[in-house]
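Here is one chain, start to finish.
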Amino acid sequence: MKIAAVEVLVPNHYLAVISLIKICKTKQNVSLKLFISEEVNQLIIGANLDLKNVEIHIHKPEKSISDLFKQIEEFSANKTFFISVYYILKHINRTKLPGIKYVGIHSSEELLDLNLFRDLKAFDFKFNRDLLYKLRTIVPRESKEYLQKIIFKRKTLTRSNTKLLAFGKNVQNELKQYINEDKVTVLPFCVKDNNLTSTSKDIAPDHINVVIPGTVDERRRDYLTFFEILQKNQNNFDPSKKITFHLLGHYGQKNKPLDKLISNFEAVSYINIKFHKDYVSEAYYSESMKNASIIFGNLNKKSQYGKLKETGVFFNMIRYSLPGILPESLKTEEFKHSCAYFSSYEQVIKLLLSWQKNTDELNILREQAKIDAAQYAPENFDSILEY
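Its structure:
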């Protein structure tokens, strides 16, 4: 069995490549070749993986995308996983491979335009020469050029040897509403890593460490509202105990309202807000996650994360076997026992106050998180290698 993985566009998607490496390691007689950028290669090297039977082709910036696809064609894999697609979609469409192509979907709304899919489903249209004219009556705001682009994408994705590759079950479930189920395959963006699971069973009652992972970006996460409510309730917390909110990601230079709000906590010794003006290294990130009590997913209510896009909150819960504090909108069957859900930030404050008095419930969530993360052990996804 020959497997190929392609990621030359987005270095941050290297974790999906690592997932595929680990899944391939669960099977014998699997030959895996990576077509990756130098940035992705360095990140994979830093992960200290067993790369036996893994061949690596580094795509250099001075080489053309056409040259890359010649290399992919020559390898002639049974299955080729394109982790990120974006502007190389037309090359994927034109490339003749003997096996199956898997086209990575990180944002179903962006790539597939699900609003258009809903309209097509409602009117039961088929792709033909009259489609462009008919679509104008459905979505008149769109230009002819845009509609042609959409049709091109649909043709790509409806070919018999092409499947969509979702990186979590949320996007898979969303896609299955519009596309035949057998056209969507899940490659988990992260798989459980026993080396990254905290060895500490119980939380120290005098310190709760809440981690908010990811780049500090108000468009994705609602920091201001939460910290404003935290400030109003700061006197309710036990001053003999400590609670840390760790913004684990690059803080950036455009967070002046947040800067001012965070500075208000400097005089509060028992509430610590930790952040980083510089980029966070992978080693520091992993060590910080291993020391976390719980992950806080303060996702912006306007975002589509968790449905049309997978959220990194779940990826971190899987990778580090940690529980989460998540919005009700992100409630899923597979993680419902390892998460505390909220519909308002006042509820989050009540949870934290309760855990300060008694950490038993938090420790139960942590133990359940290890069980839930086990669903994402690499061997549980080896079916994607079947041919």
